[in-house]
User: Fold these one by one.
Assistant:
Number 1:
Amino acid sequence: MSQKIRTAIEPTREENYAEWYQQVIKAADLAENSDVRGCMVIKPWGYAIWENIQRILDGMFRETGHKNAYFPIFIPKSYFEKEAEHVEGFAKECAIVTHSRLEDDGKGGLKVAGELTEPYIVRPTSETIIGESFSRWVNSYRDLPLLINQWANIVRWELRTRLFLRTAEFLWQEGHTVHETYEDAMDETMKMLDVYAEFAEKYLAIPVIKGEKTEGERFPGAVATYCIEAMMQDRKALQSGTSHFLGQNFAKSSNIKFQNRAGEVQYAYTTSWGVSTRLIGALIMTHSDDNGLVLPPKVAPSHAVIIPIYKNEEERENIMTFVKEIQHALKAISFDGNPIRLEIDDRDMTSSEKGWYWIKKGIPIRMEIGPRDLQNRSVFMGRRDKDAKDKQTLNFEQVITSLAAILEDIQDNIYHKAVELRKTYTQNIDSKEDFYKFFTPKNAEQPEIHAGFANSHWCEDTACEETIKNDLKVTIRCIPINAEPEEGKCICCGKESKRRVIFAKSY
Ligand SMILES: [Zn+2]
């Protein structure tokens, strides 16, 4: 009988991936469910990841000419009704404010009162209310392009929710821009898709595929939706960001008109694009292992922890003096343009307990300092991307001179692991039989981790997309932007196809 290796997280990914995900979040203390159904409480360690994501993305948005603004959380129902497809797409998941106050019900409780003449929708996305402002801000071609971003919370009344991946309320940013021409708006759409892809790969260490959504998966009201798709460790796809080319649809419904260079009044072209706290879910599922969270150093709340190990007060004093010396020297060191973010864990716990505490929280580097390390002016260092027992001794000078490079190495290492995983589980599949076999779990009751991305031909007919979705719960994740044209036969109906698309199960 083989003995099971004990892991810090139970169950393991292989045993029950969905439950493993919840346990990783719990062990890292990232977030918890609240009494408000589907709404999460983001705890400090989780929120700090979001703040790093915000800070970096915000810099990238400014770099590309965007400015931040803020618009109301409530959208009058009449605004919402203006764009027919948009209403249809979001109608089933809206939170609606219908009353304005509470009154004594005479039984010791409260009753709702003050019915509003027009209900407000709690924003599920802000195209319609921002469009209303834009219609007043844009009058001439000289006002364009108008490049605005908003950091906000939104509400989509989801029935089946999961921390970070799908919650009724979530945090996000939504970019909204207005342009003179079709080409300008399309350039913007693609530019922001590139910004998202760069951010995901460089900072979150998540390899992504840039592509276009099929008509059936498009944002309601958009002319075209582009996305970045990533493969999680259970080989399902996670849509991690979207950029929408809205053409003149929303300009027409919101009346965004301007006088063009020829002196004529015309409708503008708009775009919108967003990423959300879902990125934290993507990060957890891409990198974490059976011992808990693994964080890309560039967005980790802290880069390293020092764990002093001592038996008495005298040892403690001497070791803490050395710890402070390291802390001071590291103040002059930066990683990715920011000072090293350091934790010192001097709590009254065993060093092993502390070690595992930080492993589960995903901190990239752990440095233990005991009496013997102090004598040698060295630390015993463990990396989160390596086995928990795989540690090495570094002397004081090495810590100071190599810490940033080690963080960079961890960042690269976890990125390449993710690239390898995607490579291993992506296949070109050309026969319908193989395709169905690829996506059918052996045990339907408790589907094991299997399948991945299938690169297969599609005839561009929505009916084939629907058939595959109904049969296998598999969807076309995207039509990759840089896919080479290739003649082939649709995986579903066998008709002519011009290129391969990516099929996968998804979150
Ligand atoms: Zn077909």
Number 2:
Amino acid sequence: MAKRGKCLCGAVSFEFSGAENWRGHCHCESCRRNTSSPFTTWFGVPNEAFSFTGKMPKTYASSPGARRMFCGDCGTPIAFEHDKFPHEIHLYAASLEDPRIFSRIFILIGTSGCIGCSGAMVCPNTRPHRLEHGP
Ligand SMILES: [Zn+2]
Ligand SMILES: [Zn+2]
């Protein structure tokens, strides 16, 4: 069964099938600025299992090789691609239509940029990171 997600206004939507390749919280500076949040929660899906189903998102090249996609109407961040990961697309767990399909098992990435540990914000960073994702 297809799993679906969408932006705030619903213009950009996507679906994928099968299991996620991985799931992780990223604390890198680009993700913090991209979402105006202390961290964001990602998952990776194989390109062949994924498709956009609504309006195509706009793309912003946030660093060499990196493309961040967002809704051109409401601005919601919707996806991430990087030349380092040519076979998968990265999606925001928060954009899923039914977050209950999302596993609660996460890895931690970009933790060198973690600002949650200042104690000012809630931070899930309790283990060392195992994967580079950003910027
Ligand atoms: Zn939108
Ligand atoms: Zn990041």
